[in-house]
């Protein structure tokens, strides 16, 4: 783990107050900043160059909160979906535009996540399972529910450092939680939909 | 892209019917199997050893559907969450057990996703943001909604090959879709919660 001296040298941590020629005092503000840096590197897995940008955003007191949260969110963009073919790209982009309009989402059309979403939709169309998109609004409405929780979690804090820390941690660990919960819920839904009639042997082939 | 001959040699594709000494006929069954193999490798990114196991599961006609879907799901386990510290592990495992009981989910306690979920929760506790778990049931209920859609998508098919193909494609591309939709919905929720009063300059610092 890099030392405090290293973060000071890189300009990520503000200098402490000199209490004697050889001693500096570090206060609440330093602790908050250290927590932020560790959340970004340890949980978010961000390189130091990105951490610098986030720290810069946190220190720009003129930046409105929504913009600050946007900068933080951009550091943890979703991994790009598999490369799609060409034909389906236009159709996928149109579907994303229609979805955003239908949900009334206040987001720029060139939002990185809108671009990545179009890539995922194009991949679905390419492999011949485009009817998964019949359920796109179920996915969108579930995402709205999660986003409300995410924002409520972030809004429990006031300082820019802590809010940004929560955006990054919530997004990264939230994605992991969500992937796990989805698989558990799938397993439950599958057990209900395809029950074993009355024991491990009875009717083993019945549902086929 | 590996050739059909390669898949035949690896035992992933059944031999065609010889129509002449030098020609084999490949039918509907081969097309379905090829689609499955390509979905697993191209979309799921699975190594051939895992593809073999899935093909084996598909060919085991005695396996009940729920078990078959379970085998397919296990090939695309969620990426493990960051390594947690030790103290919080027990607490996290207890929280997962309580959640599963509270939701009434019919899943084994040692389900791989339950283990990964505990790892993610432990990481949240370790970094001092355990109150994110106040929203765990919101995440669980959103996941149930998505899992219902996932199962409905899978159940539109009857053949084991196509069902397994849909489990893998739906899970992998669905995770990607969900991550993107969550970020778009967050951006919308943030714009609503922290609006810019009436222009790019007016009230820039007001919400801070």
> Portion of residues in helices of chain A?
55-70%
Coarse morphology of chain A: elongated
**Strand element count of chain A:** 2
Query: Largest beta sheet of chain A: what is the strand line-up?
Result: 1-2
Kindly name the structural category of chain A.
Answer: mainly alpha
Assembly state of the chains shown: homodimer
Q: What summary fits the major beta sheet of chain A?
A: 2 strands, antiparallel
Spatial gap, N to C terminus of chain A: 54 Å
Strand content of chain A: under 5%
Order of helical and strand elements of chain A = HEEHHHHHHH
Chain pair forming the biggest interface: A-B, 98 and 97 residues
Unreliable stretches covering 5 or more consecutive residues of chain A: 201-208
How many separate helices of chain A?
8
Mean pLDDT of chain A comes to 86
Radius of gyration of chain A: 23 Å
């Amino acid at each position: 783990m890099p030392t405090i001296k290293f973060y000071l040298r890189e300009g990520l941590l503000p200098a402490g107050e000199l209490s004697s020629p050889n001693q500096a005092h570090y206060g609440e503000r330093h602790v908050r900043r250290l927590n932020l840096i560790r959340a970004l590197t340890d949980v978010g897995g961000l390189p130091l160059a990105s951490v610098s940008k986030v720290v810069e955003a946190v220190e720009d007191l003129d930046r409105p909160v929504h913009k600050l949260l946007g900068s933080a969110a951009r550091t943890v963009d979703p991994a790009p979906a598999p490369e799609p073919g060409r034909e389906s790209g236009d159709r996928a982009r149109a579907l994303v535009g229609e979805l955003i309009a239908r949900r009334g989402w206040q987001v720029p059309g060139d939002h990185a996540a809108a671009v990545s979403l179009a890539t995922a939709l194009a991949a679905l169309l390419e492999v011949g399972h485009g009817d998964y998109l019949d359920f796109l609004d179920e996915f969108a409405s579930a995402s709205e529910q999660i986003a409300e929780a995410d924002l409520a979690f972030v809004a429990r804090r006031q300082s820019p450092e802590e809010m940004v820390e929560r955006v990054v941690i919530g997004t990264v660990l939230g994605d992991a939680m969500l992937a796990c919960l989805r698989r558990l819920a799938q397993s439950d839904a599958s057990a209900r939909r395809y029950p074993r009639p009355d024991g491990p042997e009875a009717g083993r082939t019945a549902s086929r």
